[in-house]
Amino acid sequence: MMIFAVIMLGIWTALLAVGYSFYALSPWVIGAFMGLNLLSFIITWYDKRIATHNQQQSSSLNQRSRISEKTLYIYALLGGWPAAIIAQQHFRHKTQKNAFKYRFWLSIIANILLTIGISYLYMLYII
Q1: For FRET with 21, which of 108, 122, 125, 126 sits at 20 to 30 Å CA-CA?
Q2: pTM reported for the whole predicted model
């Protein structure tokens, strides 16, 4: 799974570079994509860190609030899913929870379809 995410991150980055080089894609789009992936990796790591901390605490008074699953879905939907998959596999976080995995993959599919649709409309407008 991690290999798939690394390959997809490379493909998305290459497509963004092609868009920048040949189709006047704004550098802000590339920066936003990289920033979303970085933030997605960080929040997945942070949620795992909090989950581990909460498991070690016997008292509920010392437990911290976790990152909501909706936040993780939103980051995946916006385009941060390659780094989120890498973080999930690296930190072994949310890899066994089937309900989360199902919704997460729906977010990924929706992101890919939206990206294809927006790219198609962008190409129609540019050409």
Answers
A1: 108
A2: 0.82
Query: Rounded to the nearest 5 degrees, what angle is found at the Cα of 86, between the Cα atoms of 55 and 94?
Result: 35
Contacts of 13 (CB under 8 A, 6+ apart): 33, 34
Residue 18 CA from chain centroid, whole number? 21
The pLDDT tens digits of the residues spanning 27-56 come to 888 888 889 999 999 999 999 999 888 888
Torsion of CA 5, 109, 37, 127, to 10 degrees: 110
The sign of the torsion formed by the CA atoms of 57, 60, 64, 68 equals: positive
What does the block give as tokens for 93?
């976080």
Q: How many CB atoms lie within 10 A of CB 32?
A: 14
